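Every protein is a chain of amino acids, and every chain bends into a shape of its own. The protein below has been through that process, and both of its lines are reproduced in full.
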Amino acid sequence: MNILLAGAAGAMGQVVAALIREQGKDRVVAGFDRTTQKHADFPVYTAMDDITVLADVLIDFSHPSALPAILKYAVKNNLPSVLAATGLDDTAHTLIQQASRQIPILQTGNLSLGISVLAALVRQTAAALPGFDIEIIEKHHNKKADAPSGTAAMLLEAARAGREDELTPVYGRYGPSAGRQSGEVGIHAVRGGTIAGEHEVIFAGLDEVIEIRHRANSKRVFAAGALRAAAYVIQQPPGLYSAADLFC
């Protein structure tokens, strides 16, 4: 595959590019980022409109602010896309929905196989244990800007699907009125060191607790998932796909 890599100068972009070089099957033909990356072995552009290199697929690990320009370019060039940036708001998801009517898009907050399995387990457990309280804890490195993580949002949606209920997220607990209300899901973010990513979902019932945890030991797992997603999405018709379509 010939890949256009958005967020090429970022931490994940560099891991993706390194894995592609290591595997030798695909190649990055161009990158996009706010700053050019002089040590890259492919051209890096600071504006999507300046890119003239032809690619088979776009992989995006950039910033949510870049999404409108990325989607505009992808639609204009009929370019299947893997969108893995986190911190997307409702407006961003609306733009993705609109673009997916014209091109195939796989959008997810996490591209690891283990997280897809974790989400399925959360959905099943939430359905099986309707009386249990649910808490989600996510941990990442001290450079991660957004909180909670996109994966925590995925796990919340999995719990909602299992309960068939619009569970209310509570982001952290503090103060004298922090007691739990019915229908809440507590979501807690930890930032420190070089943690690649860890997510834990707690189901707490009367006198018993179930904890389900996933830990990523390096960013390579997300890079490998991105390449797997790219190979998948280029074979699909226009539409919106998720990691569940890829792994499950």
Summary: The two ends are 23 Å apart (CA to CA).
